[in-house]
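Support request, please re-run this one:
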Amino acid sequence: MTAVVGILNKHAVAIAADSAVTIGGNGGKKIFNKANKVFTLSKQHPVGIMIYNSASFMSTPWETIIKVYRKHLDSTSFPTLKEYEQNFIDFLKERDYYTDTAMQIGFLENFTLDIINSIINDIASYNKGIIENPSANSRLQFLAILEEKIDNLISNWNGISEICPDFTDYTFEMFVAYSEQLFEKINQFRFTENGIIISVELLIKMKRLVYSILRAKEELTNFTGLIFTGFGEDEIYPQLIPINISIVVDNRLRFYINEDRTASISNINNAAICPFAQTDVIDTILTGIDPTLDTIYLSNFDALFKKYNQAIIDRIGDTNPLLTEQIQNLDISDIVNEFSYQNQQIKREYHIIPLMNAVSNLAKEDLSEMAESLIYLTYLKRRITFAEESVGGPVDVAIISKGDGFVWIKRKHYFRPELNQHFFDNYFKT
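Re-run finished. Output below.
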């Protein structure tokens, strides 16, 4: 896991990230504190990029891809940050050596197994006997529950209208033809070899579910967050564009712009704070209340109203059955929603707006200090509680401004700079 943040105002954008990366294996998880997550996207123009979640794309490290792209870009610039993002996506699609056919099938297999295994694990958590003590009867029960869950999931995912751009014209028939052998393989070793016979109809439903999730804009499956930020040639104020990107399937890149998290500084919008990945501490500072506590308070308010209604019903007793029934059927969801809305307005008026007004006037040095502090506070909370220390290590900080370009404020090196002057001498030569 990780924590990254971008803070924007009319002067510049400050970006910061921790150095922790979590590696999982058969023996468990291990956290290293040496990962690079902040990069210059161009050596000559004021644009940068941050990464979070998965550190690789189809097994190739993002650091390698970004630096190869940076060399490919050379001195080329674009009028807008959006065009930098589009050019980077086009670059990924053109470089098929990152995504050969065998690798695409392999990653689709992992994607499919993650979905199927999560359903099986869910069944096992509530019906342990079905998995632990297999019998003819328990296998039939398992298949019935499996099909019911898949039906429900298909119904939910089919209701999602937001589709990844490269998959808008990708039909179910195309997916079936592409993945036929893959599903035969999964059916064989995941079900048949365990004495479970999947019907043709259920197998089609599995394909339909995977197809629906594959096309959808979602954050439940594994992905990398790429955050483009800085200035295009024609942009006087900084922009921030995050995209979620995961795998390539049938030569289609699975990505989408995270529209809800974009930020654009203008004469109307003077400042923005954009946290990603582990955002709980930063959200607490931004809103004035821990998000978990906020949810608990709302839940308690709902429970309190229900208890109040029950107390009235108990007081009325059998004296007025009609009134008792009306109180029992009273829908308090509108009241709870109004309570939530009023709280949001209070947070916005008394905390968020004053904070953003202050951020809009920060100088570049203060922006960088704030960005670093937000990441450090996230680390500190993990450090002093019993939570997993999934945020940590040195904090890399940079400022991107229209006039000065990309400037490092703090940057770790895996080598001693004083012993490697040639690295800095050659930086702009490659």
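The chain has two domains: 3-98+222-278+390-429, 101-215. The chain has a mean pLDDT of 90.
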